[in-house]
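Exercise 7.
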Amino acid sequence: MDNKNNAHAITTIETFGVEQIPDHERNATPTDLFRMIFGGANTFATAVLGSFPVLFGLSFQAGVWAIVLGVLVGSLILAPMGLFGPLNGTNNAVSSGAHFGVHGRIVGSFLSLLTAVAFFSLSVWSSGDALIGGAKRLFDLPETDLTLGLAYGLFAVLVLIVCIYGFRFMLMVNKIAVWAASLLFLLGLFAFSGPFDAGYAGTVQMGSEGFWAAFIGAALLAMSNPVSFGAFLGDWARYIPRQTSQKRIMLAVICAQLATLIPFLFGLATATIVAVNAPDYIAQNNYVGGLLAVSPSWFFLPVCLIAVIGGMSTGTTSLYGTGLDMSSVFPRLLNRVQATLLIGLLSIAFIFIGRFAANLVQSVSTFAVLIITCTSPWMIIMILGLIIRRGFYHADDLQVFTRGQEGGAYWFHNGWNWRGMGAWIPSAALGLFFVTLPGQFVGPLGNLAGGIDISLPVTLGVAALLYIALLRTFPEPAGVYGPKGPRWVGSHDRPVRSISEPAA
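Solution. The predicted structure, written as tokens, is:
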């Protein structure tokens, strides 16, 4: 294969798709993984998520605890998802075929698509609004549908170009984004140090009705940020050599997510200032507009720079992985570049429809919570499968579907493993039933806990118990396990079907 995917080919279009990356092409490091994750989250969109505790009525102190709790729990769930890329040399959706079947891996692809559209849209909307809002204050540029549309289109096209060039170019962009955005956010400490009040009390205090509902809702939104990387993490980690320390990889993931407390707390702190000095914006759920209204004039340019850098970084990490994934779902129709273009154009259409026609911006929080409710059990099944199989995988057998073949260790029942599917479907559905977002979405069982959202512990607990129970009751073939055999569960000795071309 004629490849130019080396460390010096930054401006060469990446040729690898979801096929296994050869060992000699794997020269990324856990530090590179840190930069990709942190760069993708160190953005204005994350600051917007950080403003939600104030929008929910929480105090600054309660908001800090909600954000820290959400980010910490989410990062611990996310960390093991960074191991599949180095182990199998492919993305996480393809790796999930080991537990869901080579056809069942489309679950991960579907979740990746939804997550990408949601967070790419949030990034473009917030960045575009900030850029035009800053230009209005600096140059008296009118804030119209035309100017907003031009800003959204500019971001979207720039992101699409970076994604087409691929991993190495993205890594270069994120190397710049990590430091630049961090410095600009820290500059905000000086910009807002005067009006900031750490004693901001909010409108919902501990002990009052609705406090825990607001607190848990804010924590879930914070958690949605690290969980959203679950389906994408293998996209970047697949270039890390398989012999790299697994502890270093997981530590890089956790540190990258903890570092996102910078934009999270920037959003929270500035939201309290907006709530005090420009409360009408909070009433309208317009954090970006409120931030620009209370910002000192000299900080308008940094806000615009954060918007540009952040929009590029978040957008690339979202769209790149989705394009990569769609190329593997339709391997005969689309290569990575074609799939990236298609998903990019569809996402751009969604952005414009959502912003100007359907007003979906206000539903981002709902969409994010619903996504993590479906993605979290999928991740738990993957992590449990990793532990049960002692990290052993047949990397070549994972590529059966991509190559248009049949059989292999992960063929199971015509390409579907109903143990993984049988655990994910009911746990995700039950989790959705328990979602409680007052005024936005309340599931059929959402009121059973007194208005408190318990969807996450329900969906995670049910997925873990069901998956292990199904593996114990219906053992998998011994061929899917390594020489040491499985942990906690048994296996049967029926032979694995050999890989073959499909019958004509």
